[in-house]
Design a protein that fits this description.
Layout: H1 3-22, E1 46-51, E2 54-58, E3 64-66, E4 70-71, H2 74-86, E5 88-93, E6 101-107, E7 110-121, E8 124-129, E9 132-137, H3 145-148, E10 168-175, E11 183-188, E12 191-194, H4 202-211, E13 221-222, H5 224-231, E14 238-244, E15 251-258, E16 261-266, E17 271-275, H6 277-281
Antiparallel strand pairs: 1-2, 1-6, 2-3, 3-4, 5-9, 6-7, 7-8, 8-9, 10-11, 10-14, 11-12, 13-17, 14-15, 15-16, 16-17
Keywords: Membrane, Transmembrane, Transmembrane helix
Transmembrane segments: 7-24
Protein name: DUF4340 domain-containing protein
Length: 299
């Protein structure tokens, strides 16, 4: 056999090997461990979650509510979406998952995905979807996925004055013992007016409105003892009525300070919550605060 024939045979063998390898998929894109568990292309299409007996729905005004009457904190909903987006499959598991949270995700109001999430610790979570069980994780993070998919009343938005510079319509602050300090603010034309103020301090108005959403309560609860011992016997230090472009954000609240504690009572829902004293100080101002001609601002 001549060297030329040997060379041709060698070349042909290499071609055969190359052709064989061309049919082998070395890509890892389709392997289970490289797939997103929930596999939702556009998270913005999600309109509802059913989790462990709770229904979490997106309303037309953009709010997310649980069980139709609990406004949810944006950060809690954000954590939920982050988990849906980032949960990855590590490897397939042979047996199904017995425990865990049952999850149904709605796309455009249609139930599309049904899954189950169970965590044994911050580093061991499992998911089941389409009849197949997997070990799952959020890459680079130690999180208990089952806890993230565990909605409760603690998910409630605890912001008392849910408003913004662009949506506040009216803010009425009435002091019981010092009515001369009352604040009546409303949006008129292109800016806000305050009763009794001829020249508005726009910086003070902006500072005040942007501070309102920072006022948060602790635990909201119907406390009959508070109503009987306090509301029925004492007038509040002040009453605040706020009206927003989003009607669901309208609120009326009575403020009751006692020693080092400040309580807020909501007559429409009969709920009580405690407020941080530093936060409420930024709300309890007088109309003079908005007066550009106030002598104290010239010092």
């Amino acid at each position: 056999m001549t060297n030329r024939i040997k060379t041709l045979i060698g070349v042909n063998l290499l071609l055969i090997v190359a052709i064989g390898f061309s049919f082998v998929d070395f890509s890892t894109a389709n392997k289970p461990e490289n797939l997103t568990f929930f596999n939702i292309e556009n998270l913005g299409d999600i309109t509802q979650f059913d989790i462990d007996g709770h229904s979490i729905q997106k309303l037309e005004d953009g709010r997310w509510v649980m069980d139709q009457n609990i406004d949810l904190a944006p950060q809690k909903v954000g954590m939920l979406f982050q988990a849906v987006q980032q949960t990855k499959i590590i490897e397939a598991k042979g047996k199904s998952i017995d425990a865990g949270k049952e999850i149904t995700i709605y796309i455009s109001n249609i139930p599309v995905i049904t899954a189950k999430i169970h965590s044994e610790s911050d580093v061991a979570s499992f998911g089941e979807i389409n009849g197949q069980a997997y070990a799952v994780e959020v890459p680079g993070q130690f999180v208990n996925l089952e806890e993230i998919f565990s909605p409760s009343k603690e998910w409630r938005d605890k912001t008392i004055f849910r408003t913004s510079w662009k949506t506040l319509k009216n803010f009425d602050l009435q002091y019981d013992r010092n009515p001369g300090n009352n604040v009546q603010m409303k949006f008129e034309g292109q800016f806000y007016s305050v009763k009794g103020v001829s020249e508005i301090d726009s910086a003070a108005v902006y500072q005040f409105i942007t501070s309102l959403p920072k006022t948060k309560g602790s635990t909201f609860e119907v406390r009959n003892s508070f109503v009987e011992d306090t509301v029925s016997k004492f007038k509040p230090f002040c009453i605040v009525k706020m009206e927003d472009l989003v009607p669901a954000y309208d609120v009326e609240v009575g403020i009751y300070p006692f020693q080092n504690n400040v309580f807020a009572y909501f007559p429409n829902t009969k709920e009580v919550t405690e407020i941080d004293t530093k936060q409420i100080q930024d709300v309890l101002v007088s109309w003079h605060f908005f007066d550009a001609n106030d002598p104290r601002k010239r010092k």
